[in-house]
Amino acid sequence: PFINNFLFLALAIFVCPPVHAPETKRIDYEGFSVWVDCDKRSAVKFNTMPNITLVVINLLNISIDPNTPSSFQQLSAKTYKQKGQRYDRGHLVPANRLDYSKVATRQSNFMINILPQAASMNRGAWVLTEEKTECYRDIDELLIIGDVLSDNLNDDFFTESHGVKTPDAFWKVIIYNDRAIAWIIPNSADTKRDRIDHYIVTIQELEWVTGESMPVDGYIKYEKPEYSWVIPRGCNKG
């Protein structure tokens, strides 16, 4: 396999850096990692590691992480309330992706792994990427990497209530053997499930926009699938 089959364990305890020296810290949970920006009080990048599928109870009990300093966390675990537009507490790493472990599932519901997602986007194109992940992980190991893009100040509705900016878009890469697919998905009410193919980008385009380097072979960076990967017949997306 192109990645080692291991689980990230334990939590790191950090001290918020001075305002004049912003810094991103990596926090490792069981089965996934997030990179947290103290100034933003939220994750700015995430990835997940290979795992196996077991059936466990997934209780959506969203909370603040008790083992990470408050300076790296949102001010509240309450729902995001904005008049005129509905926002979900949207997961970066989905709880269902970690259903092999009750500990990992619980950790995925910490607010560090959650950001404001337009309801149509969270339940539309974004959840479809999660369903594809759920299906293809049953076939072989996957590496999933993602992040947020934010520069529009006009939609930062939750800075007072939660201390976080509203992402303008979310991106995700799924790496599967010698294949990869990437999306940049707008965080808006227009981002429906049936529009997911509009958001496909090449790895090269994604690297140019984000400044990140993806762990794929050079030729793969220039390939752009015409359609998002088809969900295999009979896949259990639960």
Q: Which class best fits the helix and strand makeup?
A: alpha+beta
Number of E-type strands: 9
Q: What portion of residues belong to β-strands? A: 15-25%
| Residue windows where pLDDT falls under 50 for at least 5 positions | 1-21, 52-59
Q: Which strand order spans the largest sheet, edge to edge or round the barrel?
A: 1-2-3-6-7-8-9
Biggest sheet, in brief? Answer: 7 strands, antiparallel
How many helical elements?
4
Q: Give the SSE order as H and E letters.
A: EEEEHEHHEEEEH
Termini gap: 26 Å
Helix content: 10-25%
Question: What is the general shape?
Answer: globular
Radius of gyration: 17 Å
Tell me, rounded to a whole number, the average pLDDT.
82
Can you describe what's shown?
This protein is of the alpha+beta class. The chain is built from four helices and nine strands. It has helices at residues 102-108, 119-122, 125-136, 203-210; strands at residues 24-28, 32-37, 42-48, 87-91, 114-118, 143-149, 169-176, 179-186, 200-201. The strands form two sheets. It has a seven-stranded antiparallel β-sheet. It has a two-stranded antiparallel ribbon with strand order 4-5. Strand 1 (24-28) and strand 2 (32-37) form a beta hairpin. The radius of gyration is 17 Å and the shape is globular. The two termini are 26 Å apart. The model is unreliable at 1-21 and 52-59 (pLDDT under 50).
